[in-house]
Design a protein that fits this description.
Length: about 300
């Protein structure tokens, strides 16, 4: 299979690239970096793109590019960057692909579960069409809609709505461990809110299923099948680190420190279920949080976490 991956240098993209190359696929990573290496193509997706002849006749494109959501406060300027790096970049990508004689046969996009917002104990599957208010929910909806436009290329389109991705050497987990290292780890708010998560290896496997499976179209919730509350999640992290957890970061502190990012990302209760993935025959390797946390923290030499 010949596949191009935008954002293929990132946390998820690098793992997907490695996995596909290991099984013998040809992968072209699209990157803005000046130091593009073999297997990479430099692009400038902040403006309309030339036709990108290197993408002629691909089996698939995976669209992972996007500026990091949670690393900086959501000022007006930052919101513009978060939206442009997804919506405009995707539009420019689709524009370039539409100029090709043989556009890709499949387009696999990415999104978040943010459209569901704060829904308490409701079990949220792909058929739930209630969209929350707020910046992130709107970003998720607009990003999905833009990516679904790849249908106009004649491509099969599948979009994975990702939960928080847990990997041993990147993403958010190493950051979550830091407070535990100085003895102040704990859950967020009252801890009863559901926190959707998925392991990095299941994320890669789900993306591969969407690449390989000719009948996979539409949206898929990419989240572990046993959702847990925030308190259970951080207790599992503490247990994997050999600590019992009794502290909490109160909601008012989080609101003061992170503004609406706290409300939409840290305190919202999103009990999402991966119904479409399961119906497509996907089996999770990392289904419940305690075993997953232990596995992630044990992945390195002598059982010692490498954080
Ligand atoms: N990780 C998660 O928990 C999670 C959860 C839900 C959704 N997602 C989404 O999944 C995608 C991949 O996540 P990730 O964790 O792998 O992210 P990541 O490590 O931050 O990688 C994203 C990649 O996007 C490219 N990029 C960054 N800013 C850009 C911009 N302004 N314009 C165009 N490209 C830009 C970068 O590639 P170059 O610098 O090489 O161009 C980067 O390697 C992201 O869009 C993210 O929002 C992730």
């Amino acid at each position: 299979m010949r596949v191009a991956i935008t954002g293929g240098t990132g946390f998820i993209g690098a793992a997907l690239t490695q996995h596909l190359r290991d099984r013998g696929d040809e992968v072209l990573v699209l990157t803005r970096r000046a130091t593009a290496r073999q297997g990479e193509l430099r692009w400038a997706p902040d403006r309309p793109l030339p036709p990108l002849r290197e993408l002629e006749g691909l089996d698939a494109v995976v669209n992972l590019a996007g500026a990091p959501i949670a690393t900086r406060p959501w000022t007006q300027r930052r919101r513009g960057i978060l939206r442009a790096s997804r919506l405009q970049v995707t539009e420019h990508l689709l524009g370039a692909l539409s100029e090709l004689r043989a556009p890709p046969r499949a387009f696999v996009g990415i999104s978040g579960l943010w459209r569901y917002g704060d829904r308490g104990d409701d079990v949220l599957t792909e058929v739930d069409d209630r969209v929350a208010g707020g910046f992130l929910a709107q970003l998720a909806v607009d990003w999905e809609d833009t990516q679904l436009q790849a249908e106009r290329l004649g491509a099969r389109v599948a979009v994975l709505r990702l939960a928080m991705v847990l990997g041993a050497q990147g993403g958010v987990l190493p950051l979550m461990i830091k407070p535990f290292q100085v003895g102040i780890g704990g859950w967020l708010g009252d801890g009863t809110q559901y926190i959707p998560w998925i392991s990095l290896r299941d994320t890669v496997r789900a993306l591969v299923l969407l690449l390989d499976e000719p009948s996979a179209t539409g949206v898929f919730n990419g989240t572990a099948p046993a959702p847990c509350t925030n308190k259970t999640f951080f207790s599992a992290l503490g247990a994997a680190l050999g600590q019992s957890v009794s502290l909490q970061a109160p909601s008012w502190v989080l609101r003061g420190a992170f503004g609406c990012m706290a409300e939409e990302l840290l305190l919202a209760s999103t009990r999402a279920a991966p119904e479409a993935l399961l119906n497509a025959g996907f089996t999770f390797r990392d289904g419940e949080i305690r075993g997953t946390m232990r596995g992630l923290l044990d992945q390195h030499s002598g059982g010692q976490p490498a954080f």
